[in-house]
Design goal:
heterodimer; A: about 325 residues; mainly alpha; ABC transporter involved in vitamin B12 uptake, BtuC; B: mainly alpha; two-stranded antiparallel ribbon; 13 helices
Chain lengths: ~325, ~325
Amino acid sequence: MIPALRLLVRHNDRALAAWALLLALLLLFLSIHPRGASGGVLAAWANQGVALAFVAVGQTIVVLTRGIDLSAGAILALCNCAASALVRGDPAEVALGIAAVCLIGAACGALNGLIVVRGRIQPIVATLATGAILSGVALLVRPTPGGSVDDRLADALTGTVGGVVPVSLLLLAVLVAAIWGPVRASLTGRTILAVGSAEPAAYMSGLPVDRAKVAAYALAGLFAAFGGLFLGFQTLSGDPSVGASYTLNSVAAVVLGGTALAGGAGSVAGSIAGALVLRTVGSLIFFTGLDPMAQPLFEGAVLLVAVALGAGRLLRIRNRLEVFR
Amino acid sequence: MIPLVRALPRPVAAPGPAGVIALALVVLLLAGGLADPRFFSPAYLLQQLHTGAFLGVIAIGAMVVILTGHIDLSVPWTLSAAATFSTAFVGAAGEGAQGELGLLVGLAVGAGIGLVNGIGVAYLRLPSMIWTLAVNMVVLGVCVLHAGLYASGSRPSAVMATLGGGWIGSLVPNAVVVWMVLSAAAVFLLRRTVAGRCLYAVGTRESAAWLSGIDTRRVLLGAFVISGLCSAVAGMLLAGYANQAYQRMGDPYLLPGIAAVVLGGTSILGGRGSYGGCVAGVLLITLITSMLSLLQVPEAFKQIAYGGVIILMVGYYSRRAAAERA
């Protein structure tokens, strides 16, 4: 039992470190928050980070295949704009609207996957291009910020259960467990990780490489759509220009959460912690009374130090050639 | 029966990146010119070269880094920081020979940021995509803090203003001359020097380059310093052109710079690419942007056209490469 546990810890050391950091930051945040630790404060904190966490989950799945999705922010923006036009009216219309937005996100992601697989274009270039296209489409859907989102549902989703647990965190946990859980356990999920480890080997073993890649990008699109929807519930409107910061922050969250950009190893849970850490640092600075002008520098420095910790890997290397992997 | 084997005529090679883009440029200009005669005027074309020169200088740095198989996402704030600190120095020191030292300040800022990028990527072995992004955010923070602490005068020196905004006898913009001089230097570096061959070697397979006795870490460090210097030069040219430095002046140049390099046929994985394609890519992006602006196409369609061109061109290159291998 204990050796199994030790193995589990060693395989997930970076994700666990991200969760430990998150816990420490959260405790610090709650202790210095002027309104103290309450369900409302916790819900407000969670709402700040959940949209980014959704995008980071999708980004992780793509990064596991050794790809990258630079259109994640654009898909989030497009879905946010679509939500502000579709998710309103009577309950049936709201439900249909949510389904439509999710479908749009997944379709955009699947398009990315097809361009990468069929067009044989490097993911970074392909998604850079589709990112431009999709942010153009978002501008067509909603040229200026505005629109409206069903506010009763929004209130329910951004509140708390029993005044303690934030609904947004539950939503995140349930959706990730219900969607990524089964996929991860399936052949497609195993292939997603195998492709990231060694694509030629996965292909030679007869694994459905192309299908796994398209599925990974489609899932990334779907999770970006969840992010866009949640952002809509948070702001009650759509904004075509929100995407840019989400793309790069989601990559940062993935790295903070311990997933290797070289693919094949990492976890979705770590990325969730990474995303929440990034957002907590922002709120924390806000309440510590640091000079507002020094805030961006502090945030940047935190990210820089967190990324630099990754260099610790060098200490474990015995053969110089391993450095180049 | 065994079929007879005979030499097939060599298929005519499909045109390479520079050729395709040259073709696209001609078609674009002809189509534009027929719709609106303004596109044919030399003044318009020179104006395009002037706008393209800033992007061109940035693309040189982006290409050198991409050739090694890495990427520099710190371009926007390296550019802004070099412009901000050089013009602040000029504002404090005043015009004249003393103020021209501001040029050195700008270059030092660029080289310094490049050095930090390079140390992280080459020596600490951090992924360039995330390390340069973090460096970009720190530089952003420094610039914001600086703007908050010192209400310093932002004024380009005489040399910056002349190089960025001046013309040689109202014929050739000086910025284009700067771009051409730096281009000549880049071609010399990539094709005629050992350092240039090392860039390609590291981009192709770093472990092989290292085993062949190349200090790959120094090559990577050098590539990022060159990129930082190019961003700094572009920043000071832009400050001279706009007569001031401003926050976020570098933001519109990050992705177009990378796109120009990729459109020019340089592999994003490193190790392959020619500088001629990079110049053609810069011209294509500049021309598309300006034509769509002149035709008053909404921003949304500009973005869509922009992404569409990248997918079409890069898709074509990869099919061509696959056909050549077959």
